[in-house]
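Sequence design from tokenized structure. All designs in this work follow the same two-part layout: the structure record, then the generated sequence. An example of the structure record is given first.
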């Protein structure tokens, strides 16, 4: 019995210590655990630093192609659609910084403010500015606002300008925004959101930064890469981003080859639209060898390595 009491006391102490050490923002150590499959460079906050060049290439990837790639990898809950978009004709990619919001509860809000003060955050203004302080170039601010629009407007034009100044990017909010006219005036800024309303944020509180969140039907982790365009948003685990881009680019080249051969009437639509024969695959490989390096979306070495891997 004495040993049992010791175990219970020790367990209570460990739970208390963990709770006491938990801040508003996830620790770098926790983010590294969440993204342990990533083996590359990281930011100081622990998030994977997916290269800018890869983010640029990803803008040309189709949402359906990215979705299909992730489904084949077993990631079935990474897409969310039905957005209002500030600039629908523009695509956006970036590294995710997450934030979670919940309905206001005074005692919990007080704890969040105390924890925020220990993280040297502004506790006089609204806590919806806190995630913006962490943004760096190439980030996308992604927030779970539980779909609330009226009194759930997470930003207006002032915070929109601050977001763009820090990230040179935009936002994805499962919630509302206000002052869309002002947001439209921010050159280069873009946003995906569930609705606009003139109301201010009230009876809603920030609860965490850089923790796993839910955005509609998608689960999002800090450091994910987001691909957003007029057809929806896909949240891509950082360790799969490079393979997804290269695989999707190969599919694009296969489409170009197929379209060309159909115009030339070398193959029928049925032959191109089904599993290719050895002869068509060989023709495709020869076509790739003649394809100009300047038009390739990837390097010639990346292409050759990928094609060689498929022969193994």
């Amino acid at each position: 019995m004495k040993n049992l009491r010791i175990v219970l006391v020790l367990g209570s102490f460990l739970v208390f210590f963990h709770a006491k050490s938990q801040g508003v923002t996830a620790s770098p150590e926790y983010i590294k655990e969440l993204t342990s499959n990533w083996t590359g460079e990281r930011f100081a906050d622990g998030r994977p630093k997916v290269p800018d060049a890869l983010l640029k290439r990803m803008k040309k990837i189709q949402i359906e192609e990215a979705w299909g790639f992730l489904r084949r990898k077993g990631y079935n809950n990474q897409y969310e659609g039905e957005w209002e978009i500030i600039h629908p004709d523009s695509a956006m990619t970036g590294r995710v910084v997450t934030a979670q919001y919940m309905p206001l509860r005074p005692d919990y809000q007080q704890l969040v403010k105390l924890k925020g003060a220990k993280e040297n955050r502004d506790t006089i203004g609204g806590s919806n500015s806190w995630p913006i302080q962490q943004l760096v170039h190439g980030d996308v601010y992604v927030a779970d606002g539980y779909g609330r629009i009226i009194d759930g407007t997470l930003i207006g034009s002032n915070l929109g300008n601050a977001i763009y100044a820090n990230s040179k990017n935009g936002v994805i909010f499962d919630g509302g925004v206000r002052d869309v006219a002002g947001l439209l005036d921010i050159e280069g800024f873009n946003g995906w959101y569930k609705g606009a309303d003139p109301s201010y944020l009230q009876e809603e509180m920030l609860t965490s930064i850089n923790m796993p969140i839910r955005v509609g039907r998608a689960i999002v982790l800090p450091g994910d890469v987001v691909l957003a365009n007029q057809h929806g948003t896909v949240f891509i685990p950082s360790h799969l981003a490079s393979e997804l881009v290269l695989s999707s680019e190969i599919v694009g080249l296969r489409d170009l080859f197929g379209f060309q051969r159909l115009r030339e009437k070398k193959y029928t639509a049925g032959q191109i639209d089904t599993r290719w024969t050895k002869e068509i695959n060989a023709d495709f490989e020869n076509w790739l060898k003649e394809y100009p390096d300047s038009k390739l979306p990837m390097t010639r070495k990346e292409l050759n390595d990928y094609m060689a891997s498929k022969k193994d």
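The first helix runs from residue 2 to 21. We note this feature because it recurs in several other targets discussed in the main text.
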